Amino acid sequence: MADDNNPIIDLSGKNNTKDNNILSLEDELLGSKPSSANNSIGTTGTTKPQITKNKFNIPQAVKDKYPELIPLILQTESMNDEEREYWFQILPIMTTDQVNKFRKILVTEKQQLSKLDQDYEKELSKINEKHLQEWQSFESKEARDKIAKEEEVAEKEESSEEEDLLKKLQNL
User: Fold this and answer.
1) Torsions phi, psi of 45, nearest 5?
2) How far, in Å, CA of 131 to CA of 63, rounded?
3) For the chain, which residues make up each domain, given as ranges?
4) How far is CA 88 from CA 56, 57, 167, in A?
5) What b-and-e string marks burial along 114-153, b requiring 16 or more CB atoms within 10 Å of the CB?
6) How far is Cα 43 from Cα 50, in angstroms, rounded to an integer?
7) What is the distance, to the nearest Å, from the Cα of residue 62 to the centroid of all Cα atoms in its chain?
8) CA-CA distance, 59 to 65, in Å (whole number)?
9) Is the pLDDT reported for residue 152 higher than 90?
10) N or C terminus: fewer CB in 10 A for the chain?
11) 106: CB partners within 8 A, 6+ apart
């Protein structure tokens, strides 16, 4: 029996929908856990397409010889599911040079997308910082305005009290 911390890894490539604690090799390589909601693999915070577990017929030769390529193929944004399936099927008959070039393409794409994501996050942080400063400035201005109004009201009350005291003194 597996628990959430130590799931059983299914290397057979067969779908196993009975036990949510059994992960496919792709899931293990991607570092995902079963989700009771939709049993799909995806990224959080973005609108990247989600890859369904065990969706592809990955030959055992690919699992044995190129396990590092499986997550790269599953995660690439430049392929649709048909293309992913094609690459899984064609990998066993590709030459070493072709596989190396394919790997380089996938890794380069992943690195470039990661760099774009980092640049986007930096720009978003700058924008958020700017808005935070504007918001803090706005709150400070509101607080100053509120204090000024309270002081104005207090001065009017004090002035009114002074006038009342002067009138009382004059009436004595």
Assistant:
1) 85, -5
2) 48
3) 103-172
4) 8, 8, 98
5) eeeeeeeeeeeeeeeeeeeeeeeeeeeeeeeeeeeeeeee
6) 8
7) 29
8) 10
9) yes
10) C
11) 69, 72, 73, 76
**E strand segments, the chain:** 8-10, 22-24, 40-41, 51-52
Residues linked to residue 132 through DSSP beta bridges, in sequence order: none
Residue-wise pLDDT for 31-75, tens only, equals 444 333 333 334 444 455 555 447 889 999 999 999 999 999 999
User: In this structure, what DSSP letter does residue 67 have?
Assistant: T
0.70 exceeded by pTM? no
In whole angstroms, what is the distance from residue 102 CA to residue 107 CA?
9
Residues 107-151 pLDDT 10s: 999 999 999 999 999 999 999 999 999 999 999 999 999 999 999
Tell me if residue 108 falls in helix, strand or coil.
Answer: helix
SS3 category, 22? strand
